[in-house]
Task: inverse folding
């Protein structure tokens, strides 16, 4: 029983997901902020390291935490009242404001050319700036601030203790957010050095203060590759949270968007799916089973897309098919790719299959994968541009591909040169996307291959060791798949 | 006043009669006789009168012919009695190396030999699809049939069939299990005791229907070993490969078996030919109809097929079932076997795209202990097999080796050492064990999703 027609559903999906599929310009917003249970720990003030692959929502949460109203929503949704007693400052982010507590990428690169540069000093400087410690704020330039930190260790400790006591007596936790660490430095070695220093400082705050906390949003591969040669580093690893999107989280996100759209169809959708809780301000929370129970979710999705990816039950189930075909090599689906795919399927259905009994036609869903692949590659280009460059060189090939063949493609396509070019500091606007750091060992193709497998762009077949490419990337690049038997059509 | 129909005998009794009449003829004429039995099991009596020719219309020849014909009906040859003196090549019969001696000659009594004419080994995979028999509702019969097939035996296929039957019955379905393991018919694990086996089986239907005599066979019985739980109205029925004759009845299972694997000429001129696939389909339909008559239309029919590269399996998988579960264990000979089978299908089938969607791999006796990668390795081998043989380049299965719901994706049946030696017949409560439930849970629920919905309530 659904009060929405296929066409009304299409309209609702197209409109409700309109903003969701825009690139990073999407600011979290009050109504649409979705709080999957698996992300709860990521917001806890005491959790220092939040690991999340490209596109899993690191920046999203960093932004949400800085907005008091959104933080309030998270506090309520996650039953985490402590979030109401935090003060947030930003220690690093992609969209740097003019009065930021941290320098531009170009300044960082210049500071690092100094022989005396120390990453731990650098981050303590940023912490003091973020805490608005007067002694350092009074200095006008970054090299000068660096020198002050280097030369005044006692004053540094005193300043931190003072900030700690102040926060403590106010009854708040001062949380410093660090995001977009892919953009610290073009050179991965240098970026690793900076990340390593940041982790050391973050741990130090947690072990020596009671109310000062760093929260570091980081890609798992960057976390793994940063050297952790400081005391008690294991305490950091024991205290990490991961941003994952399980299948039920993806569907929960989708349904949450539909139920919180500010326009026609949303109220009907809520009525059709049970008792949504009205949170005020036009924000509604779906019943728990719509967010968390796969059986219930499938029933809701079947109303939208029908049960099967074809005319009968043997063609595969829509509920599992869509997430499965969007996942990368680490079996992760980025929420933006996901919402894009659903919206595109609604658009194509309206154009080509308007008479279909369900809102999403299975062939439209199939067709939407191509656009979703483009979105995914765009995401990747922003932070891990070198990975895109490497896969581009396989164009015209066919997977599964022997590792030696992959490397031959790279040698012939001049991957080293391409990676070097990416590693050049662009002389353009420092706010411009720089494509993130390069690979750990750009000159070692075997290491590059391993790293691509690490970040889920390539996969290795278990039995043969051949290299494969998940569809969400393969469909964008012109790379075929071996297999399948051509038959004469009788 | 109508003449009553001539009395008729079943396959086994007809042969018994034929041999008895042959003995009488050997005595009456003092000549050697041979009884032949053709592909349909129809008997003819050949008298070797070459040394002393008989007249075809002599009274004792006519009475022998009529007596033989009446006693063997409907399994009577087109020429019930043949005189050797009139044959073009009598030695083809009287000196054939294929004869088996029934009784030797002694004194004035001639010898009696039997000569079987059967054909085995024809290739059924190229047979045309049997005519579909849709009935009301959206799903036709074929769609409700699930082939349970294992290339190698001993992987727990029959046990899985019983567990699946029970699960589906618990969920309210009417389930019929058909034993198509014709080469080694066993007592079904669905029955409390062998005495529950019906009088006839699939092979009886095959031989009787060949001569238009299939009405009135007793083909199905209720499965008694697995009482259905709950208030679900589910039931389990069972159709054996061969029946259990009543006390004193004879049943020559092998003789019937030797006659079933053939494509038959039309029974009456003008009808279409009767390929084996069609005949098997009719036998299964007859079982289904009988369940419908005794209770209600089956919602699901599980076809338990024998292992190996066998005609029955080929026909069942390609023609008769809407879903085919291929039991695999991860070893080279299994993959090689399936590869041969699939290659064969690929060469012969125009509709391989339709066929491939009906297939699902089952990881039988899957021992996952300690290694999560095992299932992935098995999945990958299955994927390679399908990609090399049945998948077409443009199918979405090709693009997703790791898909959750592709034909090659193995459905695991777990295996633990605790299960070794559990005998379903000795302990009727064994499916109740929570551990056993867990072993089959993924399997039963996954298969359930692939089935058409149960028949609607009869209004």
Result:
């Amino acid at each position: 029983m659904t009060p929405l027609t296929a066409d009304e559903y299409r309209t609702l999906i197209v409109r409700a997901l309109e903003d969701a599929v825009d690139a990073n310009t999407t600011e979290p917003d009050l109504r649409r902020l979705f709080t999957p249970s698996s992300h709860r720990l990521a917001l806890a003030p005491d959790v220092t390291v939040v690991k999340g692959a490209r596109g899993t929502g690191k920046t999203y949460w960093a932004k949400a935490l800085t907005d008091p109203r959104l933080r309030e929503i998270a506090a309520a949704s996650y039953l985490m009242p402590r979030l109401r007693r935090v003060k947030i400052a930003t220690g690093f982010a992609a969209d740097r404001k003019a009065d930021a507590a941290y320098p531009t990428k170009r300044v960082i690169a210049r500071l690092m050319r100094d022989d005396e540069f120390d990453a731990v000093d650098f981050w303590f400087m940023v912490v003091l700036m973020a805490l608005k410690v007067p002694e350092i704020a009074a200095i006008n330039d970054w090299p000068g601030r660096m020198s002050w930190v280097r030369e005044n260790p006692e004053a540094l400790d005193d300043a931190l203790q003072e900030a700690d006591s102040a926060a403590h007596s106010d009854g708040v936790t001062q949380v410093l957010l660090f995001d977009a660490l892919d953009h610290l430095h073009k050179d991965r070695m240098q970026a690793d050095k900076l990340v390593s220093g940041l982790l050391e400082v973050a741990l130090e705050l947690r072990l020596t203060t009671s109310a000062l906390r760093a929260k570091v949003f980081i890609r798992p591969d960057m976390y793994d590759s940063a050297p952790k040669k400081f005391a008690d580093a294991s305490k950091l690893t024991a205290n990490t949270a991961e941003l994952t999107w399980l299948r039920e989280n993806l569907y929960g996100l989708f349904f949450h968007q539909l139920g919180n759209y500010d326009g026609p169809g949303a109220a009907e959708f809520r009525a059709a799916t049970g008792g949504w809780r009205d949170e005020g301000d036009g924000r509604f929370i779906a019943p728990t089973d719509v967010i968390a129970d796969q059986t219930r979710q499938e029933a809701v999705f079947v109303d939208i897309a029908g049960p099967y990816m074809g005319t009968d039950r043997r063609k595969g189930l829509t509920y599992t098919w869509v997430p499965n075909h969007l996942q990368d090599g680490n079996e992760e689906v980025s929420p933006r790719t996901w919402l894009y795919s659903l919206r595109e399927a609604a658009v194509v259905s309206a154009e080509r299959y308007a008479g279909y009994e369900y809102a999403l036609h299975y062939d439209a869903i199939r067709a939407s994968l191509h656009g979703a692949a483009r979105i995914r590659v765009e995401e990747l280009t922003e932070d891990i541009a070198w990975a895109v460059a490497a896969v581009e060189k396989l164009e015209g090939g066919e997977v599964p591909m022997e590792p030696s063949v992959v490397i031959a493609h790279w040698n012939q396509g001049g991957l080293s040169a391409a990676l070097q070019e990416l590693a050049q500091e662009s002389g353009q606007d420092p706010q411009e996307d720089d494509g993130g750091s390069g690979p750990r060992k750009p000159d070692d193709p075997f290491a590059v291959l391993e790293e691509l497998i690490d970040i889920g762009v390539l996969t290795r077949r278990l039995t043969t060791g051949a290299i494969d490419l998940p569809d969400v990337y393969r469909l964008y690049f012109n790379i075929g798949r071996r297999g399948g038997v051509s038959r004469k059509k009788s | 006043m109508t003449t009553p129909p001539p009395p008729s005998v079943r396959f086994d009794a007809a042969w018994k009669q034929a041999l008895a009449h042959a003995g009488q003829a050997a005595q009456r004429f003092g000549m050697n006789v041979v009884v032949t039995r053709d592909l349909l099991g129809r008997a003819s009596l050949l008298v070797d009168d070459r040394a002393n020719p008989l007249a075809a219309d002599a009274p004792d020849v006519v009475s022998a012919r009529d007596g033989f014909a009446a006693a063997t009906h409907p399994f009577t040859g087109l020429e019930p009695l043949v005189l050797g003196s009139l044959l073009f090549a009598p030695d083809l019969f009287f000196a054939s190396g294929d004869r088996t001696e029934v009784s030797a000659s002694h004194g004035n009594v001639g010898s009696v030999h039997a000569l079987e004419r059967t054909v085995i080994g024809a290739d059924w995979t190229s047979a045309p699809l049997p005519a579909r028999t849709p009935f009301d509702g959206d799903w036709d019969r074929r769609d409700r049939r699930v082939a349970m097939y294992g290339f190698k035996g001993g992987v727990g296929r029959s046990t899985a069939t019983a567990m699946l039957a029970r699960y589906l019955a618990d969920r309210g379905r009417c389930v019929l299990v058909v034993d198509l393991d014709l080469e080694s018919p066993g007592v079904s694990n669905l029955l409390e005791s062998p005495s529950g086996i019906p009088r006839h089986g699939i092979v009886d239907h095959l031989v009787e229907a060949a001569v238009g005599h299939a009405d009135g066979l007793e083909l199905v019985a209720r499965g008694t070993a697995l009482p259905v739980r709950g208030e679900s109205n589910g039931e389990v029925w069972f159709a054996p490969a061969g029946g259990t004759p009543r006390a004193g009845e004879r049943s020559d299972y092998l003789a019937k078996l030797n006659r079933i694997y053939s494509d038959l000429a039309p029974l009456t001129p003008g009808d279409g030919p009767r390929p084996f696939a069609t005949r098997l389909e009719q036998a299964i339909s007859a079982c289904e109809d009988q369940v419908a008559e005794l209770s209600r239309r089956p919602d699901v029919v599980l076809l338990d097929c024998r292992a190996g590269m066998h005609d029955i399996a080929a026909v069942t998988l390609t023609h008769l079932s809407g879903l085919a579960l291929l039991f695999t264990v991860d070893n080279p000979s299994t993959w090689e076997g399936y590869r041969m089978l699939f290659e064969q299908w690929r060469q012969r089938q125009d509709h391989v795209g339709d066929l491939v969607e009906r297939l699902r791999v089952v990881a039988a006796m899957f021992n996952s202990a300690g290694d999560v990668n095992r299932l992935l390795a098995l999945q990958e081998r299955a994927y390679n097999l399908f990609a090399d043989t049945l998948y077409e380049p443009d199918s979405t299965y090709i693009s997703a080796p790791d898909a959750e719901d592709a034909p090659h994706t193995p459905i695991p049946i777990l295996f633990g050492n605790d299960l070794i030696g559990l005998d379903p017949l000795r302990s009727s409560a064994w499916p109740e064990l929570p551990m056993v439930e867990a072993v089959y849970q993924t399997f039963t629920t996954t298969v359930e999703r692939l089935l058409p919905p149960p028949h609607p309530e009869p209004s």
